[in-house]
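INTERNAL TRANSFER SHEET
From: sequence group
To: structure group
Subject: Ribosome biogenesis GTPase A

Please process the attached sequence and return the structure record in the designated field. Keep the field labels unchanged so the import script can parse them.
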Amino acid sequence: MAVTIQWFPGHMAKAIRQFEENLSLVDVVFEVIDARIPLTSQNPEIRRISADKPHLYIMTKRDLADPQLTNAWLQYFAEHNQPAIAIDAKTKFGINNVISVISPILRDKLQREQDKGMKKRPIRAISVGVPNVGKSTVLNRLVNRRAAQVGNRPGLTKGQQWLKSNDKLELLDTPGILWPKFSSQEVADKLALTGAIKESVYASDDIALFGLKQIRQLHPEGLKDRYHLTDDDLDLSDVDLLLQITKKVGMRDDYERGSNRIIQDFRAGKIGRFTLDDPETVSDDDQANN
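Return from structure group:
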């Protein structure tokens, strides 16, 4: 039986307090979410705290997500009057759309300031997102330099810092933040599979089994191609399939190493492009609380 995952270390509680304190300094919240889990990677605490601020969802890792579902999510957000863009931070695809999307929302506010005789200034934004969502890479692309630490493990951005993009945008960076309690094991499993949760917190075989179940449903051919499986292999139980893949990749019966291989292959897009959240199945409860 899978162990319930919860991960909310003290530095995240501190980061949420700092986020709330700094809201008065900014015009807009840039929430960076994972295009593979556009709903699950939304932080309900951030939405609750910043309800009165304009909000832009920046969907990262679109190169790893199902392109049809990425477009479906963009349409979903548009229908709910929620500004959102999808980008590939590695290639800068879509990164230049950030200013064009958010400027109309803030135009009246900035114009009122100028009408009062205040000096024209850049838009000020605070950037927030779950750990390892690619937020630092987005910020570095926006400011066109390696200002924030970039890596592939949760929690690299330790403190908050201002970054200047150009004369149109200033950014306040924050560490990756989760929330105190996940609403379901599925939410925790999706966050763990995509890399938002520290590896020491979960059992790798539990997450690999969850991933195999998702991939079977969405793209079984990806499993066959990646691990040279047969149709009979795909008829195995999830546990037996994990053991079979472990043998296929030369790890004999070391299912823990086999589990880590599956997880890393999923994250790197080596099995295929997957989106685990579907906008057609979103309920009001899902939207309100992850």
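Handover comment: The chain has twelve helices and six strands. The CA atoms of residues 15 and 175 lie 7 Å apart.
Transfer complete.
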